[in-house]
Amino acid sequence: MSITRDENIVEGAGLSEATPRDFFALLKPRVMSLVVFTGFVGLLLAPGSIDPFNAFVSILCIAIGAGSAGALNMWFDADIDAVMHRTANRPIPSGRVQPGEAVAFGLVMAGFSVMTLGLMINWLSAAILAFTIFYYAVLYTMWLKRSTPQNIVIGGAAGAFPPLLGWACATNTVGLEAITLFLIIFIWTPPHFWALALFKREEFDRANLPMMPNIAGEASTRRQIFAYSLLLAPLGVAPAFLGFASPVYGVFAALLGANFLRHAWAVLRMDDADRVMVPAKRLFGFSILYLFAIFAGLLVDHFAMPFYPLVGA
């Protein structure tokens, strides 16, 4: 089935009767909450200190910038959202928000967040935020998502920028530590989304999206999930080896990584005839917990490290 962009969905001339709740939904709040959290961790882990007001402005701009990218993504993807069960009730395909309103909303928020971050914090962080919005809304949404099964691999960088962005807000630099946080999310993204793509394959087929299971097949996807998981497990421990987290965090991250590998192994060993896809669903669910736990662990470790016995203050 070929999807063509419905002019009524894409252009939408009239004004809607959308509520504030509908515009809030355009921000992809669940995605935005993860972006804000990882950005916050990057900001707090950065060396030196940032005063509370500037920290608040930084996180607010990261949140608004992430929301703007979400709104622009929903505007452009309204045609495929309309044919997928899990996205059909989003504000634009359901008719609650007109496309023109969504794109204007997204662009205004993008401009506001970037300019505010530049003027009040620093221009390096503003440039990273601008590039992140462009990467997600243009490179990923408008090009990669519809053109290559590597869409998640390459496009995953957009979701990996927030901790690096938070670090830049605090220090006006980008260090090895920030790049490590970026890489954890970047390598986490393919197994996370490909697990979803395995048990949502029919929906992606209906939307004519070139997700890995639809193009390369389920067996190849399962092997790639396991390969990325092998990279992710030690990468999650890397902050302890690089010295910006303690050995206590290292043990915690190693246990999480081992559990991630256990789920990925179950996916790899899945029967080709298994249409229930329980291992893939379990990996998808655990992957969300994994990323939250890794960054929460870094945050707790940062504040608890001075109190650890045998660990310097």
- Any idea of the CATH topology of the largest domain? Tetracycline Repressor, domain 2
Portion of residues in beta strands equals under 5%
Mean pLDDT: 89
Low-confidence stretches: 1-13
User: Helical content, roughly?
Assistant: over 70%
Name the CATH architecture of the largest domain.
Orthogonal Bundle
The CATH homologous superfamily name of the largest domain equals UbiA prenyltransferase
Q: Could you name the CATH class of the largest domain? A: Mainly Alpha
Shape: flat
**Given the helix and strand composition, which structural class is it?**
mainly alpha
Number of helices: 15
* Intertermini distance: 61 Å
How many runs of DSSP E, i.e. beta strands?
0
Largest sheet: none
Q: How many domains make up the 3D coordinates?
A: 2
Write down the Rg: 20 Å
Element-level helix/strand string: HHHHHHHHHHHHHHH
GO molecular function: protoheme IX farnesyltransferase activity
Enzyme class: transferase
InterPro entries: Protohaem_IX_farnesylTrfase, UbiA_prenyltransferase, UbiA_prenylTrfase_CS, UbiA_sf
Keywords: Cell membrane, Heme biosynthesis, Membrane, Transferase, Transmembrane, Transmembrane helix
